[in-house]
Design goal:
Helix content is 31%, strand content 23%. By secondary structure, it is an alpha+beta fold. The chain binds 2,5-anhydro-1,6-di-O-phosphono-D-mannitol and magnesium ion.
Length: 337
């Protein structure tokens, strides 16, 4: 097994990228790695254990919450609290940010924002789902409980971000601002191994991913862009291929590897779009920029948006740089009345 690098080894090795690194971030990433393994184990037995199914409560966005969402939320929170590197967590599954009360946690310098189980409507049909995480340095003083401002930072302040995809194999993909690396889980060893080093998205791809069922409700520029994707221009490799899983992590992961664009625009029923800036869009935007792509709300860079609310949503266009530029052009050329 010479040459094989585990995620644990890689994290330690990369600590040198940060002058004066104290190892706190490395330890934090190790907590995420551990929680990912625990959640992965549970997801893989979901069918067997009959754990699937809505719990009966709705989350803050009024969507039915399923058991595995809650399970993942609890496991990630517990893993993050246990290692004392995090003073608080904000989760898509919780109305309010959670402050960790132990003194050791209050001495910690990081906060984590996460979507513990994204795409959870796909669990009971055996389709890939994911965990998305985003790490910031707190702005409030060390030794005090975290405050809202710690969680409401613009995405360009992220220290690290990543996702776990629970798919045909399980992978953990993350960045600390020095490129993007992907690790595939070997269940027989219980180890994530470096499988995708320095991931880069092609500048231009041939895949577009959007819930086209909402077409009639899209902004005019998005409708026109979809038609552009479907035009017969063989020298430009159009028509493009349409691929949409309905699981952001899985759609994003495929497009990252192959080149493409994922779009979740505003619609009549979701004027702000559906995806959450803090738990979904910012971490994916950090990753895609690190991989050479772009993320936009249609006009502005996602990472520059200044959040005002924890559960804020935003239209989201992410992927190959030339494709994101093109959709921005269409939105500018064809504004809605
Ligand atoms: P969730 O956080 O409730 O799981 O919703 C987010 C999911 C994304 O994974 C996915 O890209 C999107 O919602 C799909 O939405 P739609 O079903 O409207 O196409
Ligand atoms: Mg989600």
């Amino acid at each position: 097994m010479s040459g094989m690098r585990t995620l644990g080894e890689f994290i330690v090795e990369k600590q040198a990228d940060f002058p004066h690194a104290s190892g706190d971030l490395s330890s934090l990433l190790s907590s995420i790695r551990l929680a990912a393994k625990i959640v992965n184990r549970e997801i893989n037995k979901a069918g067997l254990a009959d754990i699937i199914g809505a719990v009966g409560t709705d989350n803050v966005q009024g969507e039915a919450q399923q058991k595995l969402d809650l399970y993942a939320n609890e496991k990630f929170k517990a893993a993050l609290e246990a290692r004392d590197q995090v003073c608080g967590v904000a989760s898509e599954e919780e109305d309010e940010a959670v402050a960790f009360n132990k003194a050791l946690n209050q001495d910690a310098k990081y906060v984590v924002l996460m979507d513990p189980l994204d795409g959870s409507s796909n669990i009971d049909v055996n389709v890939a789902i994911g965990t998305i995480f985003s790490i910031y340095r707190r702005v409030s003083p060390i030794g005090t409980p975290p405050v809202e401002a710690d969680f409401l930072q613009p995405g360009h302040k992220q220290v690290a971000a990543g996702y776990v995809i629970y798919g045909s194999s399980t992978m953990l993909v993350y960045t600390t601002g020095h490129g993007v690396n992907g690790f595939t889980y070997d269940p027989s060893l219980g180890t994530f191994c470096l499988s995708h080093e320095n991931m880069m998205i092609p500048k231009k791809g041939t895949i577009y991913s959007i819930n086209e069922g909402n077409y009639i409700r899209f902004p005019l520029g998005v409708k026109k862009y979809i038609k552009y994707c479907q035009e017969n221009e063989p020298q430009d490799q159009r028509p493009y291929t349409s691929r949409y899983i309905g699981s952001l992590v899985a759609d994003f992961h495929r497009n990252l590897l192959k080149g493409g664009i994922y779009l979740y625009p505003s619609t009549l029923s979701h004027p702000e779009g559906k995806l959450r800036l803090l738990y979904e869009c910012n971490p994916m935007a950090f990753l895609i920029e690190q991989a050479g792509g772009l993320a936009s709300d249609g006009q502005r860079r996602i990472l520059d948006l200044v959040p005002t609310e924890l559960h804020q949503r935003t239209p989201f266009f992410v992927g190959s740089s030339e494709m994101v530029n093109k959709v921005e052009e269409y939105l500018e050329t064809y504004p809605d009345q």
